Amino acid sequence: MTTSEAGSQAPPARTVRGLHLEALVDVLRGNRTAGAAILGGPGMGKSSLVQHALRVSGRLEDVQTVQCSPSLREVPYGALSPLLIGLPRLDTPVEVLRALQQGHPSPVIVVVDVQHLDAASAFVLAQLVQNRAATLLAMGTGPLDRASGLAALADTGVLRTIHLEPADVDRVRRQCEHVLGGPLTAGTARTIHGMTGGNPRLTNAYLASARDQGMLVRAPGGASMPGLSAPWILLRAAPEPDGRLIDTVDAMHEALQPGERETLELAALTGGVPRSLLRSIAGEHVHDLLEAGFLREEGSAETVGLAAAIHAEVLRANIAPGRSFELYKRWVAAGGDSDQHWTARSVLWALECGQSVPAQRLLDASYGALQVKDWPTARALASHVAVSREPRAALLQAELMLLGGRTWAGRRDLTDLAVRSTDQNLRMEAVSLLAMSLVNTGEAPNLWSALPPLLAQLQEHQSEVVDRPPALTRLIKMVADRSTDLRRPQIVDHLQEVVDDPDTREFTRATLLLMQAEVLTMAGEPNAAIRAAERAHLTALTYPAFSARFGLQAVAVLVFSHVTAGSTERARELLEEQLHLEPRRWHQRSGTLLALWHMVENVAGTPSDAYPWIADAVVELRQHDPLQMLPLAEAMLAPRWAVATIGMPSPTAEERAARDLSGPEPWWLMSLAMFSIVEDRHPDLKGVGRPLWRRILDDPRLQYRPVVRREILLCLVMLREPADVGDELLRELHEMAKSTAGPRAAAFARTLDPALARDPRLLAEAAEQSASVGDILPAAFAWTQVVLLHHHAGDLRRRGEALRHLKQLQLRAGVSFPPYISGAQALGELTAREREIVALAAQGLSNGEVAERLFVSQRTVEGHLYRVFTKLGIADRSELKNLQY
Q1: 727 to each of 222, 683, 697, 724, how far by Cα in Å?
Q2: Is residue 398 located within the same domain as residue 530?
Q3: Is residue 273, in this structure, part of any structural domain at all?
Q4: What is the mean pLDDT of residues 17-34?
Q5: Phi/psi at 337 (nearest 5 deg)?
């Protein structure tokens, strides 16, 4: 994800559309080619591009329009007939050419829907172009007919080919912000892009319908930063198919052949289909529809689906039942209902056509819809699930109740299942759903806190002994005991025992692996945590029921494990995989994922690049926060927020601590500490009482969470100015880095080693070693220490050398460093006038020439250069040539 995708306004560069316009104007002015073929799907803006080019080139008065259609395709010269009205009957191409050339000299002939152009007209137009007797602009939704002379002209370059591709996320964002008259968040932009497939016409219709239906609104909580306007956000992923959307889709389909429309209907009804199967039913239209941007490849190149999710929903809503049943019969005849081809959508399609579906397939389809957050399909399947007497159907019904806001009814049914069921896996799933419900409603901060009272309550209601594996029984007893400290090392041992037990079911194992990964991460054992989290994440990728409930948590725990270890590249890869999610699933996850992305870049030492992501994440998490991550996201934004405001932030850290805290305990402990550290920098609070961050560091709850202590200490150091950081704080941070594992901890332990604290040479070596393996922040920290040592020793030359190394590291990484490092950099910061003089002197100008250029005295120039040499430790004028500042 680029920064512009994640939150910043893209610069007004030469866009792809701007380049297409330049090319088309060039064609109309006859500079190189005699025409152009403008190809792209309906709604891609072909007509508006051509009209704009005609207007810019001044050739609007020269235009003759040829409208092609399927009905005229078999009529010789049928497309040209409007240009030949009133003329005698014409039987040969020569007569047609002569008749056309007797009209307007050198016209611009605009051909609309060139894919329907008859062969005779194509031959005549090709001759006109070759003779430079006309300029041809041919617009079509697919490739030029290979048997046509126009295709040969395009191959040889006589006709320029311009492909209008669907817009990327950046372009969709710009279009939306132009239409809405204000900014929108990164998650909203990516959701709209996924729902519309980047089709400009669909995007406009989507925006209008979404606003009319009240689901696209200005963020109710306002912007995340003071002084900014509230961005637009989506309250749900898609509007209901209304008249505007239906009319837009119908207009887009007008240019398509019947077989192409049928292909799209099948793809919409099935929700994704093997290309070979679709071709066997609807004919050879798949390739053209892929090129036109209507279809896209899903997963493997052998499966295709509609490029725009909203296009599929509108089509499904608009297909008459009789037509749907006719298509379903053809689908079944081709083998589409076989075990390897069904999808959640195709199962619902079968039910809508009155077909019976095996209970297990119906359940699997329901969880498949929940996995991708396709609520309309899940709700439609629910009524069919309800008639089943299967216990798992009852579990699904209860889950759908929770998702639909029927919290108490859903909990009642889940409690009944957990108490009465003899299926161990079903009981575990019911308990996990109950615990998740408590977390989602704010009644428990996390699963660990929700489980003890919940398990104790369920055990009281069980009238008979439940048959379960002994290892799981021991773990449940331990967790159900409210006096148990869930952070004890013993809990990890019991978790591992259950995970390794062959009698443990896969869902239970994956759930416990997530808990195990959380405990191990905070305990400073990242390698073991990553192994557990990866196993849970793999289950989320292959088991729809687990993915529907814990898929996002599995991603978050794995990313957090890698971040804590310092494996930022792998964390980035995991987050980049999330960019390809279905739009509904992305919408549900976007705020959480953007916050995680900022966390990754912060650890990698590139926080300024990720600032727009955390600003958007806070806005989105205020509306939808599945993992209770908002407090930590707000804390990560707090340093920026404090700089942008005057006075104290509200609510204060103390006020936040007095509230009912939500979310994982490590996250809200870190968030409170970060707010307290930011406040502690305020001049009115220095030295007032014992700060909250210090009380958190001394909290016994951190005994088994050394990583939390380490990150708080690191935040404390980095957010302070160098003069405010004492040796005692650095020693404490060093001890915490030593006590935890992973490359991140090792890098800080190396650069904070007290044995190096007074040796600038060894610190410089440690800095270079850290930088060589990509540990930017530890490397910058070590160079800062070198700068400060030379500064206090009064060795300005060596201080300047260290400052230049620090600046080179910053430029190489493209980052803005936090206050501790930037405070040291300020010792060598040049004024604007000094930078001017250095730039001219580096070009080889003498002091006198520089003075003359800047209209100052030579003595002034010499004084400025002397100060530059002193600041940066430069002894020779030649060193200015390679100076970076």
Answers
A1: 42, 22, 17, 10
A2: no
A3: no
A4: 84
A5: -95, 15
Global pTM reads 0.85
Q: Quick one: 150 and 94 in the same domain?
A: yes
Please report whether residue 138 resides in a domain. Answer: yes
d(CA 135, CA 58): 14
Residue 125 in any domain: the answer is: yes
Residue 252, in any domain of the structure: no
Assign residue 140 the CATH number of its domain: 3.40.50.300
- Whether residues 451 and 554 share a domain: the answer is no
In DSSP terms, 305 is beta-bridged to 296
**Number of alpha carbons in the 13 Å side-chain half-sphere of residue 165:** 8
Q: Which helix (H) or strand (E) holds 432?
A: helix 424-440
pLDDT of residue 94: 63
The residue to which tokens 């955390």 are assigned:
614
DSSP 290-332: HHTTSEEEESEEEEEEES-HHHHHHHHHHS-HHHHHHHHHHHH
Beta-ladder partners of 140:
39
Last residue of a domain, one of 136, 163, 190: 163
Which is it for strands 63-67 and 300-306: parallel, antiparallel or unpaired? unpaired
Give the Cα separation of 34 and 132 in Å (integer). 6
Tokens of 644: 């942008």
Query: Which stretch of DSSP H or E encloses residue 420?
Result: helix 407-420
Q: Which residues pair with 37 in a beta bridge?
A: 138, 161
Which pairing describes strands 216-218 and 232-234: parallel, antiparallel, or unpaired?
antiparallel
Burial class (CB in 10 A: 0-12, 13-18, 19+), 603: buried
Asked whether residue 157 falls in the same domain as residue 67, the answer is yes
pLDDT (0 to 100) of residue 209: 97
Q: What is d(CA 24, CA 135) in angstroms, rounded to the nearest whole number?
A: 11
Classify 162 in phi/psi space as left (phi over 0), alpha (psi -120 to 50) or beta. beta
**DSSP assignment, residue 581?**
S
Q: Quick one: which of 400, 427, 403 has its CA closest to 415?
A: 427
Asked if 785 and 805 count as a contact pair (C-beta separation under 8 A), the reply is: no
The whole-angstrom separation of Cα 470 and Cα 233 is: 49
Interatomic CA distance for residues 791 and 235, integer angstroms: 54
Strands 35-39 and 159-163, bridge-based pairing:
parallel
Instruction: Give 489: exposed, middle or buried? Use CB within 10 Å, 0-12, 13-18, 19+.
Output: exposed
Q: Is the dihedral of CA 510, 515, 519, 522 positive or negative?
A: positive
* Residue 321 backbone phi and psi in degrees, to 5: -55, -40
The CATH number assigned to the domain holding 867 equals 1.10.10.10
Clarify whether residues 548 and 447 are in a common domain.
Answer: no
- 516 and 643 co-located in one domain: no
148 and 44 share one domain: yes
| Residue in the structure block whose two tokens are 């557990």 | 532
Q: Taking the CA of residue 55 as centre, how many other CA atoms within 13 Å lie in the half-sphere pointing to its CB?
A: 6
Domain membership of residue 395 as a residue range? 390-467
Summarised one tens digit per residue, pLDDT across range 340-372 is 888 999 999 999 999 998 888 898 999 999 888
More confident residue, 407 or 474: 407
Same domain, 158 and 35: yes
Helix residue ranges per DSSP H, 681-831? 692-697, 706-718, 727-738, 743-751, 760-772, 776-793, 796-813, 819-825
**Number of domains, the chain:** 5
Give the burial string for 502-537 (b: 16+ CB within 10 Å, else e).
eebbebbbbbbbbbbbbbbbbbbbbebbbebbbbbb
Q: How far apart are CA 405 and CA 410, in angstroms?
A: 9
Residue that is last in its domain, among 163, 179, 195: 163
pLDDT tens-digit readout, 805-838: 888 888 877 777 888 888 888 887 777 787 788 7
**Residue 345 class from Cβ within 10 Å (0-12 exposed, 13-18 middle, 19+ buried)?**
buried
Computed on alpha carbons and rounded to an integer, the radius of gyration of the chain in Å comes to 33
CB 233 within 8 A of CB 182: no
